[in-house]
Amino acid sequence: MAETPDQRRNASGERGVVATDPALPPTAIDEEVREAEDRKWTPGKIALWAGIALLGGLAWFMLAIIRGETVNAIWFVFASVCTYLIGYRFYSKVIERYITRPDDRRATPAEYKADGKDYVRTDRNVLFGHHFAAIAGAGPLVGPVIAAQMGYLPGTIWIIIGVVLAGAVQDYLVMFFSMRRGGRSLGQMAREELGVIGGTAALIATLLIMVIIVAILALVVVNALGESPWGVFSVGLTIPIALFMGVYLRYLRPGKVMEVSLIGFVLLMAAIVGGGIVAETPWGADIFSLDKVTIAWGLIVYGFIAAILPVWLLLAPRDYLSTFMKIGVIVMLALAIIVVRPEITVPAFSEFASRDNGPVFPGALFPFLFVTIACGALSGFHALISSGTTPKLVEKERQTRFIGYGGMLMESFVAIMALVAAISIDRGLYFAMNSPAALTGGTVETAATWVNSLGLAGVNITPEFLSQTAANVGEESIVSRTGGAPTLAVGLAHIMQQFIGGTAMMAFWYHFAIMFEALFILTAVDAGTRVARFMLQDSIGNFVPKFKEHSWRPGAWLCTAIMVGAWGAVLLMGVTDPLGGINTLFPLFGIANQLLAAIALSVCLAIVAKRGTFKYLWIVALPLSFAAVVTITASYQKIFSSTPAVGYFANNAAFSKALAEGKTEFGTAKSVAAMEAVVRNTAIQGWLSVIFVVLSIIVIATALLATARAFRNRADGTAVQDNEDPALPSRVFAPAGIIPTPAERELMAEWDKVPAELRFERGGHH
């Protein structure tokens, strides 16, 4: 099964062919064996993929072409799953074969830089869980819910097609290129690949955008847990559960992943059920009913501690634990949709699809739908995780396709399920929940009157309906519960109670969903903080080299404190925002996130060009072009639009004028303090938008220049600088995907016979 060096050189096409240890079995599957397995098409296999393609085509036909008065929700499940399977099996394979060209004979940073803290070889399934949990934050839950204002079809197309051609491509490429560079951060890679100007612009942009993104993620957690003793108790318990799992897997029962998973799952279920019991007691309601500012401070402290603890102790087990919860709930929701088959009455394109004054979020379908739905289709935040914690934990190069491309497809499925949950509830209820209190009036009577005045087809809700819905889910009120999370919880409870338990179980399902969402998002907050620390250390390390040593504790603690302080300040601004925080900050989050995606794809473009893969450069250029056009257009409108609801500076001018005229309330602000807060917030957001878009344009321009230079150098025969770490021989083997192939199982059996002292030992590369 072993190969000769010549075969290896031909297979990988890379420099740095590494010699394997003759005392060990091969560290990779023979390329010819792998190719033969991959290309073996049996009649059964052909029939399976033909069936997947036909079912997917039928589902898309039902969603996009037929479009009767109602559409059955099962078509969303079939259209998404079939498209994901085809994208993963065929499109990601093209990227692997012609762009990344992984070589499992090379050691990964987790092997040659192992330190027991940040660089730790991690089982591929556990790492998939960590990566998925870290990338799947507020975005796939909140964005699709808010974007449902436009109807179901625009969001569905963008989420499913966008992820296959853009989001998953970005995540996979960034992870692979970072892994080949010792796990370096996106900003540091940009500095090396794009030069001083482009690299510096990318470093500043990524740091600033990271602050905004983590703050928004934390804000959604605060909104979900505010005055919710059930949620606070249950989410709080996940921290000691994760610590126990980390110690169990590290010291008590090393390698027993399935065992610790079952224990964690049982404890997690106990935490959810226990939260409901505790919340019903007078003392529980008193202790765990926390206001939003208190929860925000708690998150700030948690973010600091989580980012400095060893990755194996809290971050990886917590993310793995929450992945069970996340994927389990989403799969359960998908099964419930297939069984219940709810009819969707929301039109494919709503009344607000052709207007820019929607009550849930202002702005036209293009470009604002594509920045409102970021995570789930294309997200710059993922590039920071893919160049942050994950590449430092990967065992083998080939696993990056499963973790990077596959993890993003899973997140896209979460976004589709969130969209279906949001559009499955009554349309009037949707607008009553997602519009700010300044419009709804905050009471069931005023909200019902306002929603009915919108003139939506087939919508006529009553105060009694809103009150009954709140009672069914065990809440005081569901009017103006903005931010997307409560709407998703109501939608999930609405579908699940038809599947299990009936109306009597709605309160349980609602709080289960709130707990699920908070857990979902919290994992992105702690992973995001850790990545932000890596980024700042890399940036300062350009001037003070000692900071580049991630294991140097003083540097790690200082950089963590700076980044937590920065996003904490933005979080507190959002919590005290009179416009509901999330409604004001989410457009900035969306634009910043997609600008970051454009930066990440720009860096990938330059790297792919330098590797000489010009024939397949379009795989990166296509999503980069779309992201650049969308985000620059959206930024332009947010900066220069004269409509106060859309333009930051127009809004700022309107409120400043009202204050100068001595008014005590204006528009959505009902006090002078609230008016002053709007003026302050819009000024900050406006100038941040200007900074973000200018930096992004600089990065894109320098990436295009670097690409052109690489093309010219190849034509001239000039050597192109390679910034990859030197290739070192690997001394371990692990399968590439979730299920080992026959050849991989055969090689694993060989490795099982190798004495432990001959293998790679923790603590260094021997």
TrEMBL record:
- Which InterPro entries does this chain map to? CstA, CstA_N
Region Disordered: start and end of each range? 1-22
- Give GO BP annotations, semicolon-separated: cellular response to starvation
List the membrane topology term(s). Answer: Multi-pass membrane protein
Q: Name one Pfam family in it.
A: CstA
Ranges where the CstA N-terminal domain occurs:
72-634
Q: Which domain of life is it from?
A: Bacteria
Q: Where in the cell is it found?
A: Cell membrane
Q: Which UniProt keywords apply?
A: Cell membrane, Membrane, Transmembrane, Transmembrane helix, Transport
Basic and acidic residues composition-biased segments? 1-12
GO CC, alphabetical = plasma membrane
Which parts of the chain span the membrane according to its record? Answer: 46-66, 72-91, 126-146, 152-173, 194-222, 228-249, 261-283, 295-316, 323-340, 360-381, 402-425, 508-525, 555-576, 588-609, 616-636, 684-706
Instruction: Please report which protein family the annotation says this sequence is part of.
Output: Belongs to the peptide transporter carbon starvation (CstA) (TC 2.A.114) family.
PANTHER family according to UniProt: INNER MEMBRANE PEPTIDE TRANSPORTER, PYRUVATE_PROTON SYMPORTER BTST
- Record protein name field: Carbon starvation protein
High-level lineage: Bacteria, Bacillati, Actinomycetota, Actinomycetes, Micrococcales
